[in-house]
UniProtKB/TrEMBL annotation:
Subcellular localization(s) per the UniProt record: Endoplasmic reticulum
Pathway: Glycan metabolism; N-glycan metabolism
Any one GO molecular function term: alpha-1,4-glucosidase activity
Source organism: Polyplosphaeria fusca
UniProt KW Signal keyword: yes
Taxonomic lineage: Eukaryota, Fungi, Dikarya, Ascomycota, Pezizomycotina
Stored Gene3D superfamilies: Glycosidases, glycosyl hydrolase (family 31), Golgi alpha-mannosidase II
Location of the Glycoside hydrolase family 31 N-terminal domain: 68-318
GO (cellular component) term, any one: glucosidase II complex
Family: Belongs to the glycosyl hydrolase 31 family.
EC number: 3.2.1.20
Reaction(s) catalysed by this chain's protein: Hydrolysis of terminal, non-reducing (1->4)-linked alpha-D-glucose residues with release of alpha-D-glucose
Name the record gives this protein: alpha-glucosidase
One GO term of the biological process aspect: carbohydrate metabolic process
Xref: SUPFAM superfamilies: (Trans)glycosidases (SSF51445), Galactose mutarotase-like (SSF74650), Glycosyl hydrolase domain (SSF51011)
Length: 956
């Protein structure tokens, strides 16, 4: 059970409490007006950017705080709003307690999170229409977007095609806690007998605002010194007409976010984003977890919009939904629901991007343009990973490896947790248990398998360990509030933390991974970064004190949620430079993350439990990662804590094959549970599941390529594929793989022998294995799911690439032939793509890849393969194509094949560039009649066409 008392509630987090109270006061005050006004005389508009000054009127009315505002209109159709505080910006404040911290609000989150998409719109234009009290700007494609900026009180409405989609400060909750000096109140001595009277007096003297957490704050025995005083930034953002909001991972919640302030089944706490090592985290909770992506999207029929709140400090988000019933007098108008959100961060700038869609695809693409797309992984990284805490010796590793082979179970990567190190000193091997790491690596290399070793950010503070010596000597550790090296407690005991905000720390870190430095590592070693929230066992909320200091003088408070990304990034950079000339795509798994982490690796959902509820929750959690720009994600298969029953373990593998990052992992106190352990029939069933993952690796790899080039999720929720289907918006227990129409519904209930699958549209859906037909839009369909059966459907209209030969690792499939499964739609047509590259290097960036579009034209009864690689011939491309020249399509299966093919015995195949004599080759066609609810199907065996070539198969 999670220890709630270790983590703050909103009430225990001063700034959250203050801002929620502010919201309550606003709601309870009928005459409430936001005290923020944009001074019209300061407004300037130039080159797509509006600037001005907002004045915050303090109670009493005379004093005003100056807040510089910018609203930038971007070429991509986004708008970015920033608000700073002039006094802090100018450094015109006094820090308390000799603090060495910076004086400004943190303004550097973009350096870590943003990599593009900032081109300013040249077409954005002020609307000259005179409208007292408002400034209007048209922007976006063909000026379809409009920002209506109200001066007093300040607020912005963002419109698309004249309809308001997003509103800032509608409820008047904008709140920039401005700097003020602490006024020390004289402490009067109490005289006996005066007790009660005194209390009365103090009550009356108390200021309206609750100052109790302005100057310092204690929790769990730790006191935060808060040298800059209160500095929160908060804003309400409304989505009128939107009932569903998604995103803001990481929480163990459903995809469609519940309300947090009253209403059916509401949470009582806001969603919290404050990366933390939450031991035995609970289900269905807005509690914070290990990572944070402050990107939220709102969805309704015909429209998806969103906001990205670029702030790295502790953040809380309230979600409120208001149902507006239909007005009985206005016939025909339906009631609708509005969603209002309230964003509250402890410090930093207000910096918000507004997305106006209108499609879910626009949102993921534009968010990816800003924060970067998923790095294209090596092909092994999307195969199966076998981990546990711990494989205890190098012999143990080899033994596990041999057993996978003995049982003919495919796997690619074996992992080492912290016990491989010598006394928890990273970059060392325990001399008694890992006697010969070189030999171990060589053993794995035989089947082209890899090893992932854990390297955490806490460095053991002990004598005679070169890493800590260098860290201290070079001054690269995170500092405490007094500017000395911060010392805390983690796995190794007393430790210090490398400060990867510091470029010099990254340079140093890179050196540690060179083969001659990290002795015993090899070209098939890859890295796992854990505990990078950072986890500090004796720190407040199991992390660092907020008044710790990072490079540049920023307080930990300001950068906390980015911390994990900086460490992950440093390791990624290091893996690029292990050896001169050896440039391969790194693989680094992280636990903590922020917007942008997708550029440097994969994540997993941390320490889950071997319970059915955790298996169930993993699906919406991984789906949410996908639509939030970090799709290379997965959960520990089998559950980290505890021992799963054999049934649960089996079902978890059957679900885990759909995690983009697919790894079995277990706690040190659990029993062994490698897939060969449970025995009959479980081992065989798990093996079949693993084979299914391996068979579909071509589809997965293509889906990763799509994510890496368009920002699309790898597994996709119903609303993303069917954005018009209102009934399915909240469906989050089934998923589509890439653009393939492969619809999976993992079994997450004990004892189930069927599942019900929701079909959003009226295309035919076929069972993956036996082609049973399911059809009927907007309905649940019962699909059998006895233990040995994985519920997986294929939607009509898609062509799915596979590799059907079972192998021991994905590397051994590199030159295997492909099978194409053509699933015909209602009109008898289908389409699909395939992306293949060397799976290892960056040559694909110079065009060395195969990218094909396969189409089956139902009218002409012709199937074609056309080229999608628009690179011109280069040496790299030509060499790659040469290496793949013999790789062919060995089978084409057509599901829903028309009856007329019954008598057809052959098709005509032609390949581009073939010799005259080899053009138009007849190849046999076999047709199989539909039986009891199943589709008829046909197969073309060995059309002898190359996967990298253009070709045509004529079925007419
Ligand atoms: C915590 C991680 O979440 C878990 O996966 C790992 O096994 C332990 N740390 C030990 O390194």
């Amino acid at each position: 059970m999670v220890k709630h008392e270790n983590f703050k509630t909103c009430d225990q987090s001063g700034f959250c409490k203050r801002n929620r109270a502010f919201a309550d006061t606003a709601a309870a005050t009928s005459s409430w007006t936001s005290p923020y006004a944009l001074d019209p005389t300061t407004i300037k508009f130039k080159d797509g950017k509006l600037s001005g000054t907002i004045l915050k009127t303090l109670s009493g009315g005379d004093e005003k705080v100056r807040l510089p505002l910018t609203v930038t209109f971007l070429e991509s159709g986004l708008a970015r709003v920033t608000l700073d505080e002039e006094k802090r910006q100018k450094g015109d404040i006094v820090l308390r307690g000799d603090s060495k911290a910076r004086k400004e609000r943190y303004n550097d989150a973009h350096t870590w999170a943003i990599v593009g998409g900032l081109d300013v719109s040249q077409g954005a234009a002020l609307n000259e229409k005179v409208d007292q009290g408002y400034t209007r700007v048209f922007y976006g494609e063909a000026g379809k977007h409009e920002a209506v900026i109200q001066h007093q009180p300040f607020g912005i409405e963002f419109k698309r095609d004249g309809v308001t989609q997003v509103k800032f400060n509608e409820r008047g909750l904008l709140n920039m806690e401005h700097w003020r000096p602490k006024v020390e109140k004289p402490v009067e001595e109490k005289k006996e007998g005066e007790e009660e009277k005194k209390e009365e007096e103090t009550k009356q003297e108390e200021p309206k605002e609750d100052e109790s957490t302005w100057w310092d704050e204690s929790f769990g025995g730790n006191t935060d010194s808060k040298p800059r005083g209160p500095e929160a930034v908060a804003l309400d953002i409304s989505f009128p007409g939107y009932e569903h909001v998604f995103g803001i991972p990481e929480h163990a919640t459903r995809l469609s976010l519940k309300t947090t302030r009253g209403g059916d089944g509401a949470y009582s706490e806001p969603y919290r984003l404050y990366n933390a090592d939450v031991f035995e985290y609970e289900m269905d909770s807005p509690m914070t977890l290990y990572g944070a992506i402050p990107f939220m999207q709102a969805h309704r029929k015909g429209s998806t919009v969103g906001v990205f709140w670029l702030n790295a400090a502790e953040t809380w988000i309230d979600v409120i939904k208001t149902k507006n019933s239909a007005n009985p007098l206005s016939l025909g108008t339906k009631g609708h629901t509005d969603t209002q959100t309230h964003w509250i961060s402890e410090s930093g700038l207000l910096d918000v991007f507004v997305f106006l869609g209108p499609t879910p695809q626009d949102l993921t693409r534009q968010y990816g343009e800003l924060t970067g797309y998923t790095a294209m992984p090596q092909s092994f990284a999307i195969a199966y990973h076998q981990c546990r805490w711990n494989y205890v010796t190098d012999e143990d590793v080899k033994d596990v490896d041999r057993k996978f082979d003995k049982f003919k179970i495919p796997y690619d990567v074996i992992w080492l947790d912290i016990e491989y190190t010598h006394e928890k000193k990273y970059f060392t091997w325990d001399p008694l248990t890992f006697v010969n790491p070189d030999k171990m690596h060589k053993h794995l290399k035989k089947r082209d398998r890899k090893l992932v070793a854990i390297i955490d950010p806490h460095i053991k503070n002990t004598d005679g360990y070169h890493v800590i010596d260098e860290l201290k000597k070079k001054g690269l550790a995170v500092k405490n509030k007094d500017g000395n090296d911060y010392e805390g407690w983690c796995w190794p005991g007393s430790s210090m933390w490398v400060d990867c905000f510091n470029p010099a720390a990254i340079t140093w870190w890179k050196g540690l991974f060179k083969y001659d430095s990290f002795k015993g590592s090899a070209s098939n070693t890859f890295i796992w970064n854990d505990m990078n929230e950072p986890s500090v066992f004796n720190g407040p909320e199991t992390t660092m004190p907020k008044d710790n200091l990072h490079h540049g003088g920023w307080e930990h408070r300001d950068v906390h949620n980015i911390n994990g990304l900086t460490f992950h990034n440093a390791t990624y950079q290091a893996m690029l430079e292990r050896k001169k000339g050896e440039i391969r795509r790194p693989f680094v798994l992280t636990r903590a993350f922020y917007s942008g982490s997708q550029r440097v690796g994969a994540m997993w959902t941390g320490d889950n439990l071997a319970e059915w509820s955790h298996l169930e929750a993993s699906i919406p959690m991984v789906l949410n990662q996908g639509i939030s720009g970090f799709p290379f994600s997965g959960a520990d298969v089998g559950g980290f804590f505890g021992n799963p029953s054999k049934e649960l373990l089996t079902r978890w593998y059957q679900a885990g094959i759909y995690y983009p990052f697919f790894r079995g992992h277990a706690h040190i106190d659990t029993r062994r549970r490698e897939p060969y352990i449970p025995g009959a029939p479980y081992t065989e069933i798990i093996t079949q599941a693993l084979r299914l993952r391996y068979q579909l690796l071509p589809a997965w790899y293509t889906a990763f390529h799509e994510a890496a080039t368009t920002g699309a999720p790898i597994i996709r929720p119903n609303f993303y594929i069917h954005p018009e289907d209102e009934k399915g918006f909240a469906v989050d227990d089934q998923l589509y793989i890439g653009s393939y129409g492969l619809l999976a519904k993992p079994v997450t209930k004990e004892g189930a022998d069927s599942v019900s699958v929701y079909l959003a549209d009226d295309q035919p859906y076929y069972d993956y294995f036996d082609y049973t037909l399911y059809q009927g839009a907007g309905k649940e369909h019962t699909v059998p799911a006895p233990l040995e059966k994985i519920p997986l459907l294929m939607r009509g209209g898609h062509i799915i690439p596979r590799r059907d030969r079972p192998r021991r690792s994905s590397a051994l499939m590199k030159f295997d032939p492909f099978t194409l499964v053509v699933v015909l739609d209602k009109d008898g047509s289908a389409q699909g793509t395939l992306y293949v590259d060397d799976g290892e290097t960056f040559d694909y960036q110079q065009g060395a890849y195969i990218h094909r579009r396969f189409s089956f034209d139902g009218k002409r009864q012709i199937m074609t393969s056309t080229n999608l690689n628009d690179h011109r011939s280069t040496a790299k491309l030509d060499n790659y194509l040469k290496s793949m020249a013999k790789v062919r399509i060995e089978k084409v299966i057509i599901i829903g094949a028309p009856k007329e093919w019954k008598t057809k015995k052959q098709v005509i195949v032609s390949e581009e560039g073939a010799k005259e004599s080899k053009r138009k080759i007849p190849v046999g066609l076999e047709w199989f009649e539909a039986s009891s609810g199943k589709a008829s199907w046909a197969v073309v065996r060995d059309p002898k066409v190359g996967v990298g070539r253009g070709w045509k198969i004529d079925f007419s």
